[in-house]
Structure formats: C-alpha cells, structure tokens
Amino acid sequence: MKYLKLILLFNLLLSFSANALLEVNILKSKEAAFPIVIAPFEIIGDSKENVDIAKIIRDNLNRSGQFSALSTDALVTNQIDFNFWKEHKKDAVVFGKVEQISPKVYNIYIYIYDVFSEKSLYQKKITVSNSGFRRMAHFLSDKIYYVLLGQKGSFNTRLSYVTVTDNNSGGRTYRLQISDSDGENPQTIVRQSNPILSPAWSKDQQKLAYVSFKNNRSEVFVMTPFLKTIPIKLPKFDGIASSPTFHPSGDSIALTISKQGNKDIYLYNFKSKSLKRLTKNISIDTEASFSPDGNSIAFTSNRTGQVQVYIKDLNSGKISRATFEGRYNAKPVFSPDGKDLALIHRVDKDYRVALLDIKSRDLTVMTRNKSDESPYFSPNGGMIIFSTNRDNKGILSIISLHNNQIVELMQKTGEVREPTWSNYSN
To answer: Which of the four CATH numbers 1.10.8.60, 2.120.10.30, 3.50.50.60, 2.40.50.360 does domain 158-421 have?
Structure first.
C-alpha cells in the first residue's frame, strides 16, 4: 500500500464570524503554492457594507491548497510597483474597487496582473446588489483560479451537511443545512428530532435527497431547497430505503432497498414511478455512486466475505471488483472526471479517506485520522470533503489533492456530519 508521507502541519489561519455556523481552521503543509497578493478593494462612495470581498477571495484561494494568497498594508491601483513584487517573489497581483451607484447597487471592478510579464491578465466591471456581495466574491475567486491555473474553481458552489445538537428536553435536534462553500450563509432546510442521513444533490443543484427516520423507519425524501415546498417522500417500497444518489440526468435516483431483509440497489424513475433492480445478490449491496456519464455505478458490497467496492457497467451489466487492498473499503464516490474513486479504507482499527485510481488500482491513503466518513469531491475534483472526529466531536474536513492541506470546519456547539458538495450553478 502506498501512503502519502506524513506532512508537517501547523496552524495557518483561524477565522471566526458571528453569522457563520462553522469555524474554519486551515492546517497547511510546507508544500509550495502559487504566491499571489489579493489587495484590499478600494471603496468609492458612502458604502456601509462590511463585506470584505478581498478577504473572502484570499480565504477561498488559500483553502484550495493551490495558492498562498496574502494581503497588503495599502491599496494597490493601476500604478503597480512590479519590481517590488518581483523582489518579494509574488507571481500575480489582484486588486479592485467597490463603487456605490445607488443605495443598494454597486459596481465591482477587479484587475489581475502577472508580475513578471507586467501585463494585465483580466479586468472586469460587474454590477451587483448589496445582497450579492458574498456570491460575487465566490464568483471572482473562481475567475482568479481559472485565469491563473487554467482550471475551474469550486467556490461559487454550496455544501450540504447535517448538524446535531442537544436540546432542552434532553433529546437531540437534527438539522439538514446548506451553506456557501466556505460554510457561510448557513440555512436550515429540515429540522427534526429524528436522525437525518445521506444528503445528496442533483446535478443541476435544484433538488436535494436525504434519509429521514421521522416516521421511525429509514425513508428517502426529495426536496427543492430553494423553493418553499414540502419535501416529498418516495413511495413506501417493500422494505426500508437508504443511501440515495441522483443519476446525472436528474430523471431518476438510485437507492438501497431492503426487501425480505436483503439489501440491493434499485433505480427509481421520477416520471414513470417505476423501480428497476440494479444489483441482485444474497449479500449486502449499498452506497451507490454514479459515474459522471451515468453509465456506471460504484457501490459497496460484502459479497466476497469482505467489505469491498465494486463497479457495475449499466449498459453491459458486468460487475467488476475495484478494491483489493485491505479487508474494508466502502462509501465510494466518483471523481468529476470519472478516473478516481474517493472511499473509506480501514487501516488496522482506523477508518481513513483514500483515493483509488480505477484503471491502475493504485490506492493512496490520504489522511491519518481514526474515524473518517462520507467523502465527496469538489466539483472541480481538486478537493475532497469528509466528516471525521476531533476530540470526540464530529467535524467536517476538506483535503486538497494538490498538497494534502487540511481545512477543518467545525460547529461551536454540537456536531456536524454527512457532507456533500453541490455541482456548479446553471
């Protein structure tokens, strides 16, 4: 088995927000990252907005593991001292300004310059309302990521996760939440006293499926989180339902159904309301994940006496074993390019996030934790979010596939679990 070398971690950044659900803690390796400057944005007019666009951008880029984004003590304008930034070994300078044009409408300007060529790489004026500042900062973060790296970013996307807190009656309160990719702007879309599990986004980001025990049994619900509609419970199948995952087309959903005590994977079509069986085995088949093209599923099964990951070609019906190292591999999810699987791999008594190259079968253990769960790729494939345990408390972590940087997202009270990452907005 190939392990990543143990990296030296140190506390790089700890930021708090009174309005944020999650505290963010970045643990960074000494691996080199793209050195850039994100200068404070100049404010023009009588704006009373306290959204620091430059700071949001810096935090976004630093979380990715691809950048070492720093601030400056002074504003940067079109008169850039390129020699100064060359001496300080910065590759790019980003600056901008916020111009108020009415009480609630602003122009946001952004400029990206390459230090060594001394040329403009990108400049843009965008008009936005004051309520859209944070989303615009995420959009600009994605733009900087693309201009400098030639790859799509994953900042203007959303997370979903489950939080668990103790309530005054001695029970527990479960909340299904969605937030920006940095944990800000949290919204509770489901709140109940019974467990919530396995949230899953549709590819178009319009629907969210989840498992609920509110009726004292495991059932799958589907909701439209951005519309004020009541979640729809899928039909009562002949058995309990769990582990939902949307087909990329959005027309159907795969889920595990237990019939006569045997768990297999089925495909439910929303339009025809028909149910199609995808696996048939006396053992447990569960935790399906669709490939990006929708032609295959990866799933967990103990059909060989061990818990392993398998892949089924939905066109030919052929099932092949994907994992061979160790006696426990579970919870597979395809990377956006379909070449890798993120999964949970057991090392001795510990459960850790691992990355499997499907073609070569090369398995790389990514973490050193004891109880990792629920891995999921960012839309650009550059990061994996997962849940783990820190000091007997459930938290979320994001690992960069660029340099193994870890970002921890934790709730001030209670626990946070079951993360998923949305696709890009349409």
So the answer is: 2.120.10.30
